[in-house]
Amino acid sequence: MYRHLDPGPPPPASSEATARVMRRTKRTGTAPEIALRKALHARGLRFVVDQAPPGTNRRRRVDVLLRGAKIAVFVDGCFWHSCPEHSTTPKANREWWQRKLLGIVLRDRDTDVQLAEAGWLVVRVWEHEAPADAAERIRALVRSRIT
Ligand SMILES: [Zn+2]
User: Fold this and answer.
1) DSSP SS3 for 31
2) Which of 1, 22, 90, 144 is the most exposed place for a label (fewest CB within 10 A)?
3) Does residue 80 fall inside a structural domain?
4) Is residue 15 part of a domain?
């Protein structure tokens, strides 16, 4: 059973740069998400956005759902989801940030398991990936799942 690692209340932002990062929390329709949606659309793929598939946790919305192929796509920000190439931990309030970012990664993996158990193929696209490359990868997966 998964339990969210609660890092406690956020510390006061130590600098304007950190404050900016903290404000940039996950919303739907971020620039990388919109770029991916356009690239998918240009390839004739149809999808719905920001929904949880039936039978899964309503609070874990998926960025892009390709319902026919049962593919769930997330566009993960490099900072918040600890991309292996660009992850950083702010120096100030370091321990709080470590718990916070670890909690997000654990929740992501738990979401992956829940979706897989409901029959969905989970695809995670990093914010730093070229939208056209990601869209090609997804198109190939759609083809392999719809025969
Ligand atoms: Zn990255």
Assistant:
1) helix
2) 1
3) no
4) no
Ligand 1 centroid to Cα of residue 55, in Å, is: 31
Domain tally for the chain?
1
What are 76-126's pLDDT values in tens digits?
999 999 999 999 999 999 999 999 999 999 999 999 999 999 999 999 999
Weakest mean pLDDT among 1-5, 95-99, 125-129, 140-144: 1-5
Query: Residue 10 domain-assigned?
Result: no
- Kindly give the distance from the C-alpha atom of residue 83 to the centroid of ligand 1, in angstroms, as a whole number: 5
Residues 6+ apart with CB under 8 A from 85: 78, 126, 128
Closest CA to 73 of 7, 10, 136: 136
C-alpha 82 to ligand 1 mean position (Å): 8
Q: Tell me: the pLDDT tens digits for 53-74?
A: 988 989 999 999 999 999 999 9
Q: Judge whether 49 lies within some domain.
A: yes
C-alpha 138 – ligand 1 centre gap (Å): 19
CA distance 109 to 117: 12
pTM, entire model: 0.85
pLDDT for 24: 60
Phi, psi of 25 (to 5 degrees): -75, 170
